[in-house]
Design a protein that fits this description.
CATH class of the largest domain: Alpha Beta
Number of domains: 2
CATH topology of the largest domain: Rossmann fold
Low-confidence stretches: none
Radius of gyration: 20 Å
Mean pLDDT: 97
Number of strands: 20
Structural class: alpha/beta
Largest sheet: 8 strands, mixed
Oligomer: single chain
Strand order of the largest sheet: 4-1-5-7-8-9-12-13
Bound molecules: aspartic acid
CATH architecture of the largest domain: 3-Layer(aba) Sandwich
Order of helices and strands: EEEHEHEHEEHEEEEEEEEHEEEHEHEHH
Number of helices: 9
Helix content: 25-40%
C-alpha cells in the first residue's frame, strides 16, 4: 500500500466559523478523521506546516512547503498539500520550479466549503487528491472538482463554485471519475527530482487600464528586479500625448531590470508581433514575452530564475526553457 504525506497549510478546507468569518483551525490529522475509509486506498499520514488563509501566503511559505517535501521525499510515495484556493495556483507554480522533474506525485488541493459543513467539496477533493497521489502521475498538480491540472497551468477562475480551477492554454492531465484516474497526458520526469531553495521575491506586476500613468511603471521598476506588464489582447504598450510607456521600460532595462510583457486575457496568450503597439517593442527593446504562460507561472518562474542568476542572457535562456510544460508556443 502506498504511503502518502498530507501537509496541512490552512485554507477553507480546514476552516471553522469564528467571530469575524472563516479562519483555518483544523490540523491535517483532524481533516483525515473526516475520511475514515481513506485507509482502504492508501496509508495517509498528516503533518501540520502552516495555519494560513492563503491570502497571507508569501514566497517564504512556498520555500517552507518545498523544504518539507524535500526533507520527507524518500519516506513517502506521494504528497498532498491541503491549501487555500485563493493563491493555490501561485503555490502550484512555485512548487513546479522549486521541485523539478519529480517522479512522485505532489498534489495540491483544497475546497470552496469547509470540511465540517454538510454541503462541502472538501471530502471529495481530498479523496481525489489521494487517488492522484497514489498514482504514477508525476510532478506538481492541482486536483480539484475532479480535474487534474498541471501546476504551471492552473488558475482560479470562480470565486464561489466548486468548479473553481481551470487549466489555461493546456489540456487537463487527467480527470477523476468515481475515484479512478482517467489519464490524458503523462508528464515526463527524472529518476530524482531537482530541488531549489532560493527565490528573488522582487518581482512585481502592473495590470494596465486605459490611461495608466507610465510613472507607475517607473516607480515599480525602481523597487523591483523584474516587472511583469499585463497588457491588453495579444499585447502592446500605450504611447500617450503625455508620455510613452516605452521610454520608461527602456530606462528600466538599461538599469538592469527584467521586463516581461503578458496579456490580461485569460486564454491563448500574447503575440507582440501582430500590432505596431507591440512589434515596436520587440524590435527595439530586450523585453521578454510570456506567450502562453500564465501570469502565476511567469511570477514564480521569474522569482526562481532571478534567485539563481541576474545575467540577462541566462535569464532569457531560462525564461524560454520549458519547465513542467509551462511554455509551449514561442
Ligand atoms: N480564503 C481562503 C484561502 O485561500 C479561500 C479558500 O481556501 O478557498 O485560504
Amino acid at each position: 500500500m502506498k504511503k502518502i504525506l498530507l501537509i496541512g497549510t490552512g485554507g477553507t478546507i480546514a476552516s471553522e466559523m469564528g467571530d469575524n468569518g472563516l479562519r483555518p483551525e483544523l490540523t491535517s490529522e483532524q481533516l483525515l478523521r473526516y475520511l475514515p475509509d481513506i485507509g482502504q486506498l492508501c496509508q495517509l499520514e498528516g503533518m501540520q506546516l502552516l495555519d494560513l488563509d492563503s491570502t497571507n501566503m508569501t514566497p517564504a511559505h512556498w520555500l517552507a512547503i518545498a523544504g518539507e517535501i524535500r526533507r520527507c521525499y524518500d519516506d513517502y510515495d506521494g504528497f498532498i498539500v491541503a491549501h487555500g484556493t485563493d493563491t493555490m495556483a501561485y503555490t502550484a507554480a512555485a512548487l513546479s520550479y522549486l521541485i523539478q522533474d519529480s517522479p512522485k506525485p505532489i498534489v495540491l488541493t483544497g475546497a470552496q466549503k469547509p470540511i465540517s459543513y454538510e454541503t462541502t467539496d472538501s471530502k471529495q477533493n481530498l479523496r481525489d487528491a489521494a487517488a492522484a497521489a497514489c498514482s504514477t502521475l508525476c510532478g506538481v498538480t492541482i486536483v480539484f472538482n475532479g480535474k487534474v491540472i498541471l501546476g504551471t497551468r492552473a488558475r482560479k477562475t470562480r470565486s464561489k463554485s466548486f468548479a473553481a480551477f481551470e487549466s489555461i492554454n493546456h489540456p487537463l492531465l487527467a480527470i477523476i471519475q468515481d475515484g479512478r484516474l482517467v489519464r490524458y497526458i503523462q508528464p515526463s520526469s527524472a529518476t530524482r527530482p531537482h530541488f531549489y531553495d532560493t527565490l528573488d521575491t522582487k518581482v512585481s506586476l502592473l495590470k494596465l487600464i486605459p490611461g495608466t500613468d507610465p510613472a507607475l511603471a517607473a516607480w515599480m521598476l525602481e523597487r523591483s528586479d523584474a516587472l511583469i506588464v499585463e497588457s491588453f489582447g495579444v499585447g502592446g504598450l500605450p504611447a500617450y500625448d503625455s508620455g510613452d510607456f516605452c521610454d520608461v521600460i527602456r530606462a528600466g532595462l538599461e538599469a538592469g531590470k527584467v521586463v516581461v510583457m503578458t496579456t490580461q486575457v485569460a486564454n491563448e496568450g500574447s503575440d507582440l508581433s501582430v500590432y505596431q503597439v507591440g512589434s515596436r517593442l520587440k524590435g527595439d527593446l530586450p523585453i521578454l514575452e510570456a506567450y502562453d504562460m500564465t501570469t502565476e507561472a511567469v511570477t514564480a518562474k521569474l522569482m526562481w530564475i532571478l534567485g539563481q542568476t541576474k545575467n540577462r542572457r541566462e535569464v532569457e535562456r531560462l525564461f524560454y526553457t520549458p519547465i513542467a510544460r509551462d511554455i509551449l508556443k514561442f
